[in-house]
Design goal:
The chain is mainly alpha-helical. It contains three helices and no strands. The protein has one domain. α1 packs antiparallel against α2. The longest helix has 27 residues.
Length: 93
């Protein structure tokens, strides 16, 4: 099956945006060394990157709603499980 030249364009745009998000992550890691906003910002950037990869490179954007839910549920569960200890630490202060 032959690909048209424009078929790769969205994937290259997503790749460029992922590179940009990675550069922002590196900048945040070095600039906000002692800031309390560092970790939430890095988590938000990571979630944005995971979403882009799942939607475009794993082709979930073109799948039905049921398959999206099946793919997104573990992501949401992992976020909740990763953040749960931080809420416990904050509650003990």
């Amino acid at each position: 099956m032959a690909h048209t030249p424009g078929a790769r364009r969205p994937y290259m745009r997503v790749f460029a945006f992922l590179v940009l998000l990675t550069a922002v992550e590196v900048a945040v890691a070095f600039v906000l060394a002692a800031s309390s906003a560092k970790v939430p910002l890095l988590i938000a950037l990571a979630i944005a990157k995971v979403t882009l990869v799942a939607m475009y490179y794993m082709h979930l954007r073109f799948e039905g709603r049921v398959l999206r839910v099946i793919a997104i549920f573990p992501l949401i569960l992992s976020i909740v499980l990763a953040l749960a200890p931080s809420f416990d630490v904050l509650a003990r202060r």
